[in-house]
Amino acid sequence: MTANLTQGSLQVREGSLSWRYAAVDDGEDGTRPVLLFMHAGVTDQTLWDGQVEYLVDKGWSCLTFDLLGFGRSHASEEYLRSNPRPPFNMIEHVDILRKAVLPKDSTIIPIGLSIGASLALGYTVSRQEVVSGAVLVSGGIGGFDHPNTEAEDRIFKLAEALIADGDVQGAANLQVRIWGDGPLQEPGRMTEPLAEQMLKWNIEICARECSKTGGLALDTVEPEKPAGKLLNTIDVPVAVAYGSLDETYTVAAMKHVGETAKSTQVKEFAAAHMVNMEMPDEFNKWLGKWLQSHYLD
To answer: Is the separation of the CB atoms in 275 and 241 below 8 Å?
Structure first.
């Protein structure tokens, strides 16, 4: 199916957001929700290229963007020089993006992985008037606590120490180990092409984090009430996916959403954190079937 492809850079208070929009004429009544993809903290928006290609062919319009401080989205020099540097509101950024890029009265289905899943959930509980559903993949949930193992805690502390020491290469390598292989898995488990892609992303991200100009070094606004405490308020379908080889906390958080939200479908994949990278065909078919069953049948 043919899509009208547009892209641009949108100004926000703290800098600029890079976005890409594939708009499809679905040939029906034009009421399908737009799929709004939100990437992980160890990637940029290109994480979702395979899903966008697959779903555009199925008639879905897709919007992707780089979170502030990732990919082609950059914090402004003025913002970076601020002292103190105020945290920014990612939900407000999504509001600005949605209103600037999408047709008026569009509804959306936020689809997020990792911190993108946390944002997708936060947006769903706070903007239910424009959200038709949500897809949460390998995400943490605000207000939900579950301990990791001691081994996992050690490797996460090491990752923090490498950033603090300014070791970009070491930090990037470890991010691939944690989020590519899985923190409790053998190093090198992820296939070489995927590991190379993750390393490419993380060399850039870790460099920004070491210099405090991007990545997770930029602080975000915490909601007054964590989204995890509002799961029972969600009245739209929710799809949840996680990898069985992922960190302990993430697996528990995704299961918790499945057990708590009202209309939820949960899928476990034989993967670690980056489910859509490791198992693209199975993931695409699962997501496509879920969208078909809830919005087209």
So the answer is: yes
